[in-house]
From TrEMBL:
Protein name: Cytidylate kinase
Catalytic reaction annotation: dCMP + ATP = dCDP + ADP; CMP + ATP = CDP + ADP
Primary location group: cytoplasm
Binding site for ATP: G15, P16, S17, G18, T19, G20, K21, S22, T23
Keyword annotations from UniProtKB, A to Z: ATP-binding, Cytoplasm, Kinase, Nucleotide-binding, Transferase
Location(s), subcellular: Cytoplasm
Length: 236
């Protein structure tokens, strides 16, 4: 599917894991000639830096912060091939592994880590907006913290079971072992940690439009997003 024009400005895409956020955000960006930023990948890269430093959740917070904030994290914004590098290494596959998944909520809850990464994310957005086309930014605090002035904010949602099934299929495609009960428990654990953390908790911005993806295909969600972008007058 191709969009009817080029995006201008920022589209903020929020929601918990397994709602199809990454897939539809990339597709929307590609359809509208826009850049794309996965902020969750930056927190995963910071978490990998913590693991590479030999630390885990039991380490003092100061040590976790030091390891995470010392890392050099670079995000590529081409929706056709987004990249994430940690100290020069391509870590796109490694950050999706179980070790990072198990620790990322704890690392991303650290206020010093969030403060630094939000500044870096905002710098990427600002740079993208100097070029033709806007940017689609996905994460858990985009509409509330990273880009609170975005002209279009969307909050994707889906049931726990649907999201866990999607995560399981994603893991299977990547060659990772799949246990449905464990995956469902992990989805619920991530939701609990992300929505109750003290800094930038996961929640829907008051002006974000809700899109329930339970019964929608990727194509149907993309069609709805393109309609919303057009309705807001964000295409040139």
């Amino acid at each position: 599917m191709t969009g009817p024009g080029t995006l201008r400005g920022v589209v903020a895409m929020d929601g918990p894991s397994g709602t199809g956020k990454s897939t539809v955000s990339r597709r929307l960006a590609a359809a509208c000639g826009a850049a794309y930023l996965d902020t969750g990948a930056t927190y995963r890269a910071a978490t990998l830096a913590v693991l590479r430093a030999g630390l885990d959740e039991s380490a003092p917070a100061a040590e976790l912060v030091a390891a995470a904030t010392a890392a050099r994290i670079e995000s590529g914004t081409d929706p056709a091939g987004p990249t994430i590098r940690l100290d020069g290494d391509d870590v796109a596959a490694e950050i999706r592994g179980p070790a990072v998944t198990g620790l990322v909520s704890a690392v991303s809850a650290l206020s010093e880590v969030r403060t630094q990464l939000v500044k870096e994310q905002q710098a990427v957005i600002a740079a993208a907006l100097t070029e033709p086309g806007g940017i689609v930014v996905e994460g858990r605090d985009i509409g509330t913290v990273v880009a609170p002035d975005a002209p279009l904010k969307v909050y994707l949602t889906a049931s726990d079971e649907v999201r866990a099934a999607r995560r399981g299929r994603q893991d299977a495609r990547a060659g990772r072992g799949v246990d449905s009960a464990v995956t469902l428990a992990d989805v619920r654990r991530r939701d609990r940690l992300d929505s109750t953390r003290a800094v930038s908790p996961l929640h829907r911005a008051p002006d974000a439009l809700l899109v329930d993806t339970d019964e929608l295909s990727v194509e149907a969600v993309l069609e709805e997003l393109l309609r919303l972008v057009s309705e807001r007058g964000l295409l040139t």
